[in-house]
Specification:
Number of helices: 2
Order of helices and strands: EEEHEH
Strand content: 5-15%
Number of strands: 4
Helix content: 25-40%
Largest sheet: 2 strands, parallel
Oligomer: single chain
Shape: elongated
Strand order of the largest sheet: 1-4
Amino acid sequence: MLADNSTLTLLDVSGNEIGGIQKKDEKFNPTPEGPAALADGLKANTGLQYLDASGNKLGQEGGKAIA
């Protein structure tokens, strides 16, 4: 859906915890699957000009996937 959308110019997914999970009373566990899925959906998108993924604790692997 994201790949086929040529009219989407701004996408704000800030603060959505796409970078991992944190269970109650446990340390945050970054996982690359969420950021990788978002990046995969945007690979062929030609209209997106701005992506705000701040506040998601992407971690090193998740950041690489988005980049």
